[in-house]
């Protein structure tokens, strides 16, 4: 009779990567709410739940495949598989079951277009990014970042059954945000990635090239960040605040770009990394609040 693994409920929650899932859920919710066609609140809850479960399934499958390098890196060696709390086989089954459950529930209760989009996102993150790009190219974050940028498009598709230029803009904001966010992180955990033989940009191209690219992507991201206002998708409040946030992001990226000493690089990279979290959350929160406020004013004036 097989011996049960010592994992508890918290270990399985960790497998779902709850911090990453929270970002997935929030951006998907914004995509759903700002879509032009309202969705039934109950169906909207089901859709967000499916996206959350699908995102968690992706995280679990990522940990299953990356168990070998997770055991090497300091920041990941306490995850359930390398810590011996659960076996790789159990995590594989867990991830596959959750993936199938999320996709089929989405298809049955919401629409099959959004379900297919969710399935593709899971496949992209697990197969294209985790199994292929992550260990083979310093562009892993750039291309693989698409997986993390799809959720608002899925939320939009859940409400409308399609995609549009507006949802593509939401995708581009996250897509352009991902490289400076993760490369800033990699600048102060370079040794960790090096020991695991993951070809992150600083390890392969060096700090100077990484800083150059961070600055370029920061500028592109800031331009995408204000695009919703210029295409008439967002109002003046969003336009002003997104511009301010974008300028701050570019400033922090420029400050990092100027540094030469290692200690200064680490300090500036940490500052940029933590502000990048604020930037994305604030940008989508402003878009959400402005959209809800506009609808409320329209409703009260009707």
From TrEMBL:
InterPro entries recorded: Protohaem_IX_farnesylTrfase, UbiA_prenyltransferase, UbiA_prenylTrfase_CS, UbiA_sf
Keyword Membrane part of the UniProt annotation: yes
Listed GO MF terms: protoheme IX farnesyltransferase activity
Localisation per UniProt entry: Cell membrane
Keyword Transferase set for record: yes
Entry superkingdom: Bacteria
Stated family: Belongs to the UbiA prenyltransferase family. Protoheme IX farnesyltransferase subfamily.
More details: Carbon 2 of the heme B porphyrin ring is defined according to the Fischer nomenclature.
Annotated protein name in UniProt: Protoheme IX farnesyltransferase
Source organism of the structure: Bartonella apihabitans
